[in-house]
Amino acid sequence: MTAGIDRRSAAELIESGIAGVFMKHNSAASLARGIRDVMAGLVWLDQELLEGAWLAGARPAPPPGPRRLTQRERQVLSGVFEGLANKQIAGRLGVSESSVKASLQQLFSKMGVRTRSQLVRVVLEHHREELTSGVSP
């Protein structure tokens, strides 16, 4: 929880794999939702904070391995970016929760990351165009 954070610090926190940053000016209800989301394995970041971190962040070289995302990977990523839990993503796509978990594990491996927050960072840094030009979920 913070009253404010500069872009560089936010970028460093995201690169380190934090699961959430809560701004003090947000409501108590928002804090409760953020805590629940983080406890469920989701990432909780203010959109402006994420954008600022993106603009300020050091951009390491893309991880090795396959670079193209499959349609299913893009669909799952869309749900991750919306802050949905695996069960919610599965319901949206009409697949099992296990299928979503398998897709996430493939994405983690493909992107060389271990957490959803790292996945979001790497995708934004290295695959943004592929997401916008890909098939929508």
CATH topology of the largest domain: Arc Repressor Mutant, subunit A
Helical element count? 8
Query: What count of domains describes the coordinates?
Result: 2
Q: In the CATH hierarchy, what is the superfamily of the largest domain?
A: Winged helix-like DNA-binding domain superfamily/Winged helix DNA-binding domain
Terminal Cα span: 33 Å
Q: Percentage of helical residues?
A: 55-70%
Radius of gyration: 15 Å
* Structural class category: mainly alpha
Question: What do you see in this structure?
Answer:
The protein has 137 residues and is an all-alpha fold. It folds into two domains: 7-56, no CATH class; 71-133, Winged helix-like DNA-binding domain superfamily/Winged helix DNA-binding domain (Arc Repressor Mutant, subunit A), CATH 1.10.10.10. Helix content is 61%, strand content 0%.
Search tags:
137 residues, mainly alpha, Arc Repressor Mutant, subunit A, 2 domains, 8 helices
Give the arrangement of secondary structure elements.
Elements: H1 7-16, H2 28-39, H3 47-56, H4 71-81, H5 86-93, H6 97-111, H7 116-126, H8 128-133
Summarize this structure briefly.
By secondary structure, this protein is mainly alpha-helical. It is 61% helix and 0% strand. Residues 58-66 have low confidence and may be disordered.
